[in-house]
Specification:
Largest sheet of chain A: 7 strands, mixed
CATH architecture of the largest domain in chain A: 2-Layer Sandwich
CATH class of the largest domain in chain A: Alpha Beta
Oligomer: homotetramer
Order of helices and strands of chain A: EHEHEHEHEHEHEHHHEHEEEEEEHHHE
Number of strands of chain A: 15
Largest interface: B-C, 39 and 39 residues
CATH topology of the largest domain in chain A: Dihydrodipicolinate Reductase, domain 2
Helix content of chain A: 25-40%
CATH superfamily of the largest domain in chain A: Dihydrodipicolinate Reductase, domain 2
Number of domains of chain A: 2
Strand content of chain A: 25-35%
Structural class of chain A: alpha/beta
Chain lengths: 330, 330, 330, 330
Amino acid sequence: MIRVGLLGAGRIGRIHGGNVAVSGRARLVAVADALADAARDLATALGADVRSADAIIAAADIDAVLICSPTDTHADLIEAAVRAGKAVFCEKPVDLDAGRIEACLRVVAASGQPLMIGFNRRFDPSFAEARRRILAGEIGPVEMVTILSRDPSPPPPSYVTRSGGLFRDMMIHDFDMARFLLGEEPVEVHAVASCLVDPGIGAAGDVDTAAVLLKTASGKIAQISNSRRASYGYDQRFEVHGATGMVSARNVPVTTVEIATVAGFRTDPAQPFFLERYAAAYRAELDHFLGCVADGTAPSPSGEDGLKAQKLADAATLSHQTGAPVRLKA
Amino acid sequence: MIRVGLLGAGRIGRIHGGNVAVSGRARLVAVADALADAARDLATALGADVRSADAIIAAADIDAVLICSPTDTHADLIEAAVRAGKAVFCEKPVDLDAGRIEACLRVVAASGQPLMIGFNRRFDPSFAEARRRILAGEIGPVEMVTILSRDPSPPPPSYVTRSGGLFRDMMIHDFDMARFLLGEEPVEVHAVASCLVDPGIGAAGDVDTAAVLLKTASGKIAQISNSRRASYGYDQRFEVHGATGMVSARNVPVTTVEIATVAGFRTDPAQPFFLERYAAAYRAELDHFLGCVADGTAPSPSGEDGLKAQKLADAATLSHQTGAPVRLKA
Amino acid sequence: MIRVGLLGAGRIGRIHGGNVAVSGRARLVAVADALADAARDLATALGADVRSADAIIAAADIDAVLICSPTDTHADLIEAAVRAGKAVFCEKPVDLDAGRIEACLRVVAASGQPLMIGFNRRFDPSFAEARRRILAGEIGPVEMVTILSRDPSPPPPSYVTRSGGLFRDMMIHDFDMARFLLGEEPVEVHAVASCLVDPGIGAAGDVDTAAVLLKTASGKIAQISNSRRASYGYDQRFEVHGATGMVSARNVPVTTVEIATVAGFRTDPAQPFFLERYAAAYRAELDHFLGCVADGTAPSPSGEDGLKAQKLADAATLSHQTGAPVRLKA
Amino acid sequence: MIRVGLLGAGRIGRIHGGNVAVSGRARLVAVADALADAARDLATALGADVRSADAIIAAADIDAVLICSPTDTHADLIEAAVRAGKAVFCEKPVDLDAGRIEACLRVVAASGQPLMIGFNRRFDPSFAEARRRILAGEIGPVEMVTILSRDPSPPPPSYVTRSGGLFRDMMIHDFDMARFLLGEEPVEVHAVASCLVDPGIGAAGDVDTAAVLLKTASGKIAQISNSRRASYGYDQRFEVHGATGMVSARNVPVTTVEIATVAGFRTDPAQPFFLERYAAAYRAELDHFLGCVADGTAPSPSGEDGLKAQKLADAATLSHQTGAPVRLKA
């Protein structure tokens, strides 16, 4: 049994905590949160202790920590935890600044401890299966990746100002998926973006609608588009076109019910948001991390994956600002 | 060029006439109809003459006749036409009375002329392809056929009284499809029926909602259901379950457009009725008939196919009336 | 917290036990099983005691029992448990003999304790949603119900001999669904059945392919078909046709991945079998039972629902044996 | 009856000629083609004369000409025909050079004759319906257009050299669709392209895989992607995301047949190529042209639409060559 400490008892912390409890291979030992009530409620429900983050990191009875606290605490907590000999799972991103990420990853490397970054979408059963089929050669060499990703509704402008902007906050997941699906690093980034959904987002200095083209050294192309709003649920789809076929993964409807009337055939909206859409992904993600900790193997996606996605987000942000493509080293 | 005479310039006659004109292998020579205007309009549009039915049947410049006149004229016209040495295509049914059909088919057999019955659905590209795959062994031996067939809206009760009833007028198409898909003759018929759509139909002595079970000697089962009303268009589907797979054929939507909104995902209704749904089937059906006339091969479905479907319709009618299954000779 | 005892630690018992553990409203106190290892493994995993069935039924620290033991023990265990003042959830069927069920239900009624029967499909999110829409009037009055239900592969003939036969063992779920969807009791049952899948099943006196027509007093029709084999997974679908629309519920594919190649577009098979297909249904089912126990309301489906489905299965068995329809009292 | 002359009896000329014949509102008077046999065969089949292109343009018994000859003849023929007082339908493009198009359109404007350009996709029933729903406000203001367009297989490199390149030869249709769907002119074009399908295309100086981002003055975004190869048929899809919904139009499968086996559920490939996929579009397109000629209204898409699409293709070509976005005047 792997003994787990949880840093952060918010929405995503509660998901991971519950998944530890039913994993069959780990035990949730302690929970920390700046809000005492949140920590206590979660700990009680799952039979764990409440401790401070420092105490969890220092604890002799804890093998691994899950970092689900605010973004600006991630890098410091990762460094402290790996120095204390803990295996670490951290929600994305390590930091909004690529230089800070690099410094943190050097500490992780020096520690020899495993670090996994929470790009949950890689573990979605459909997305993971699509990639397995690409790797199995079912569509031949990949030529073009198309990722369509839309949130159900925009965040408040106040959130936007501390988010790093759409490319770093929202599209970063798609940059990771593009790398996952292309199987090759992008070297060129063209971004186009607008504020069409909420003028408050524009006033806060961000965009809410964006499209990006990525190109790899061998000429593979990825197109990613984002909107902060979709009336029909959380829209999460991609398709990968290869030399001998195409593989795609679609949305999951709320139910399979179809109504036929004089207006035609109507099926359900997509799942409302990420907690429902990626429930199975979160279970599989944690299972992968726990398996790696148990086996002593390196988890994936790694800190390096986190850094590369961040650099693509930075490049897209710059491309949008300058109106010109940005070249990256492969 | 096969020289064609058309008996009947109503809705279905106009379809066949136009298909002759664009077939590339036949020429429409003459049109007959009890309504002079209908005959003249169609003849003008397609560059044909107006003649009487008798004149068309007797004509030396006509090789084949298409019988699209009212049902109660079919058997007499078939007999006259084959006696005059014409190849005959006749809309279903030959007659509402099986004995009359048998007598007519004896005349046809004696004449040596080809007779094809217009079970158009066999020529629907999707239905025909489904059967090709069954014959190719893609689903293994057939075990169960499910046919769902619903008209968009009920006919007037006045029509019902001279139609022979739902089983002979509407489900007869499905009996033919069941035989087409089972590949074996049914020997047992269980019918259940109700009047749920229009009390006027019940008052006219008919039903508007019905389900039938057919069983073959080897134990294969077909289930057919009909309704005289479907809010979402002309509903025409089947699925065939076999030992190693299932093949199904679905409705054709009006367009492929899909709208996604907060209410979910909505696609178009099915095609409104048979003229749209089976437009391609009518073309393929006529093409088959013309090809058989050109090659001197026997067209299919034959008069015998028409008779067998009629006997299943009679059996279903009897089963509904008696509340007991009806056994047929294989 | 409702204190729960589990009788039976087999495949379905483990499902319910796990769902108690994560329910948030109940605690699994004890597990019983004739196989000591099975009981111990499950109890250990879920933090419960191992006790005998008798001890669980008699226990003062247990409020409700879940009966997941072999069918021939159900009626006796239900009677003992309700007499001991326990709320009871029992997997279907109460018994294979309708008379024994009636006797058992009299004991339950006398006890005043709640009894819920495990017709899990009513709690499938899609099936339940379809019914909600029917009740909301979205398709108008129900006219025809079509249920297609196929197991992925046949059970061994040895199972068949003690199962009560296909109608009582497999189609009973569909009889319950037909009642659930029709909203009115069937009064007429026509069954047709064959042995097409496995001759060993025929040798054991049972069938593996069957179709049934049900008719209610007001003329509504249900058609149910079953096969003991489906190459493409566990096939569980229905559609309900009403005066103003149709509602259907489809299979759940393993993933949403679609591959497009020269062979066309290919999506995943259906979920392999009931544990995967109805995972969400089992959670919702238990949640309903626990909610009723907590609130003191009557759970549904009730013992009476179990009895009515059993009588339809008996009627279908008789109809198949006699080759004639069977009439039931409404 | 509008009297029509056809210039060009190749693949697309035969389509238009046949559609004239069955239009009910026009008569095909004469056909011209550099290949005498092609002209004669088509004229015979459709009951028309064979004449030279000059004779058709000069003819007093012809009202309208359809220009289906090679691209490099289009501008000259348009000018001659409008000067001779003919209504003109011309396949795209007017010319590969935007300056030549502008000169030609000045001649057309001076003549007062109608000119329609053959952007057939606007008349696809599904695409046209999607736009009707956008105009009807069903998805709110348009925010992002995504067009996916792939040919079934690459043309020979010899074709590529005289085609003007992928952006002018293939993507020009998508530029027209983007304008059609955006409802606003793009002012910014980013192109990324590669040669991944056939090295011979690269050797001929062209690309076979490309993606383009367009942005309008108000910030609407369109993303277009093309490949010269798709294993699963002619891939022609788009989706339009708006403030309150999304509308999409999908491929048309060859049939509606679905096969379910242990490998999953398989449906047909998309229609093989444009003749099948856009058969209904070609009929509707000609019908629109004939209707405009009959009514004296201006047909759409106009020569100006042809010019604007060409300018987008030029801009995309330049953007690909320079690696930088190209700005256009609105």
